[in-house]
Design goal:
Elements: E1 7-15, E2 29-31, H1 34-39, H2 57-76, E3 85-88, E4 95-98, E5 105-112, H3 127-131
Length: 138
């Protein structure tokens, strides 16, 4: 029998950079290099950030998470193309990451009772198996 997933997804949202002004000089596209294109055949990187808190879940969701979302949004205003999508240039000569108003990054907030300190105690070879416990089931 399969073990229950120890991760509980609390919120899934999309975070966009603040709207750009009409006279903004912020670049909206970024050309991909040869080295970037080699990585396109692999699945996207997933990052896990752990935060330990003594606050109840409701406080975390009502106070901390909005600040995290706002901070991410403000950071994206300096790296707008990173909220975009991979596409071709109009003449189909090269791949670029292009931001279009409304593009956003996905943010998943989840909680777990699993002891994440155990990740640092196991050998390097066992980490991939244990880290799978921390990815939410979709």
């Amino acid at each position: 029998m399969a073990q229950p997933n120890p991760v509980k997804v609390l919120d899934v949202c999309r975070v966009a950079p603040p709207p750009l002004s009409l006279d903004s000089t912020t670049p909206k596209s970024l050309p991909l290099t040869f080295f970037d294109m080699v990585l396109l055949k692999f699945p996207p990187t997933q990052r896990l950030y752990f935060y330990e808190t003594s606050h109840p879940t409701t406080t975390f969701l009502e106070v901390v998470v909005p600040k995290l979302r706002h901070s991410l949004s403000l950071t994206l205003q300096h790296y707008v193309p990173l909220a975009g999508n991979v596409t071709w240039t109009p003449d189909y000569s090269k791949l670029i990451i292009k931001y279009v108003e409304g593009d956003a990054v996905s943010l998943t907030i989840a909680e777990s009772e699993v002891d994440f300190y155990s990740l640092s105690l196991v050998t390097t070879f066992a980490k991939p198996k244990i880290s799978i416990l921390f990815y939410p089931a979709w």
